[in-house]
Design goal:
about 130 residues, alpha+beta, Alpha-Beta Plaits, two-stranded antiparallel sheet, two-stranded antiparallel ribbon, 4 helices, binds iron/sulfur cluster
């Protein structure tokens, strides 16, 4: 059963513009989710640098949810546990099942990512301008 509200990728949809922008834990260079955790339940893997939750320690304070810069930490209110993408330990299932290959996994070209992010506002403005013309 699909439950998009619990997806560990956050998709921001601009319905009027027909644009969807995905967000997922990168992770950050400085991880505020780790810094704010009062019980050291949010941790960082020393090798991959990915952040992950130690559910045995987590007290569900939700500080990490509020601190996440991309809004990609969620509280599953059914199972009452924090959920976040941890890249499936380096072999993400989403990339394997994506039918169109829209999700791929590999080394990140940070300069290219920052360049693409910088272009988003201008891209949205251009779409909005084009849409308003007709
Ligand atoms: S919800 Fe859990 S992992 Fe997140 S900050 Fe609180 S104790 Fe740490
Ligand atoms: S969970 Fe959020 S704050 Fe933490 S490293 Fe990932 S993107 Fe950054």
């Amino acid at each position: 059963m699909f439950q998009p509200s619990l997806a560990r990728l956050r998709i921001v949809s601009y319905d009027d513009l027909g644009v969807d922008i995905p967000f997922v834990c990168g992770p950050c260079e400085e991880a505020p989710c780790v810094e704010v955790c009062p019980v050291y339940a949010m941790r960082r893997d020393p090798v991959s640098k990915m952040t992950f939750v130690d559910h045995d320690r987590c007290i569900l304070c939700k500080s990490c949810v509020a601190a996440c810069v991309y809004g990609v930490i969620l509280l599953d209110t059914v199972k009452m546990r924090i959920v976040k993408c941890d890249h499936c330990g380096g072999d993400p299932a989403c990339a394997k099942v994506c039918p169109t290959g829209a999700i791929s996994y590999g080394p990140v070209d940070v300069a290219a990512v920052l360049d693409r992010r910088r272009k988003i506002p201008a891209y949205l403005e251009e779409i909005e301008r084009t849409a308003s013309q007709g």
